[in-house]
Design a protein that fits this description.
The protein is α+β, with helices and mostly antiparallel strands. The protein is built from 5 helices and 6 strands. A hairpin with a 2-residue loop joins strand 5 and strand 6. Helix 3 crosses helix 4. It is globular, with a radius of gyration of 33 Å. Keywords: Signal. This is Thylakoid lumenal 17.9 kDa protein.
Length: 201
């Protein structure tokens, strides 16, 4: 039994057209580059302790020395909000002629006791005289800040670089190095420094 070929050819042609029209977009879709998925490192997140430690703010805050950042254990500050990193301010001798003289003595003591000192800022504010300097630290440069206010000198000594070991979220180090630096400057000045032991006596 024979079939008329004239009626089959249009159907085959039509099927072929449908097959091509269906497969072509699929081939194009498969050959197109897939959108890249960005895998963000936990260090890049603005909420990690590491990223927060990079945002080190300097200068006075509401006319006061800033507290130590919670993400930076290598710090001491006379701001009471520093809790475990708190240090008592220095008491300036009453025979000091002026606050300008106090700042000058402070500069000299910093230069004598610290390495590669660079004075970055000095400002005479309504709250007192603010002095900021950079010095060599354990890893990179550290920053020391002072506020001379009448008979008291507030300060903060803080590391600019904090070391974290992934995946731990606790920074390495402590504030002993910063406290030793402040002690050296205070000993050079010879100013009275209160402490908790004296308060217990």
């Amino acid at each position: 039994m024979s079939f008329p070929t004239a009626t089959l050819l249009p159907q085959i042609s039509l099927c072929g057209h449908l097959l091509v029209s269906t497969v072509a977009p699929l081939v194009l879709a498969l050959s197109a580059p897939l959108p890249s998925l960005a895998i963000q490192s936990p260090f890049a997140s603005p909420t990690t302790p590491f990223s927060q430690s990079k945002d080190l703010r300097l200068g006075l805050e509401d006319g006061k020395i800033r507290p130590c950042p919670s993400t930076n254990p290598r710090c001491v500050s006379t701001n009471p909000m520093s809790s475990l990193s708190f240090a008592f301010p220095w008491i300036v001798p009453k025979n000091s002629p002026s606050s300008d003289d106090v700042v000058q003595k402070l500069r000299e003591a910093i230069v004598k006791t610290q390495k590669n000192v660079k004075f970055v800022a000095y400002e005479n504010t309504p709250e007192g005289q603010y002095l900021q300097a950079e010095i060599d630290g354990g890893f990179e440069r550290d920053v020391i800040e002072f506020l001379v206010k009448k008979d008291f000198v507030g300060y903060r000594s803080v590391a600019t670089n904090v070391i974290y070991v992934y995946p731990f979220t606790t920074a390495l180090g402590d504030n002993k190095g910063q406290q030793e630096r402040i002690n050296k400057i205070g000993e050079e000045l010879g100013w009275y420094v209160p402490n908790f032991e004296l308060m217990d006596d």
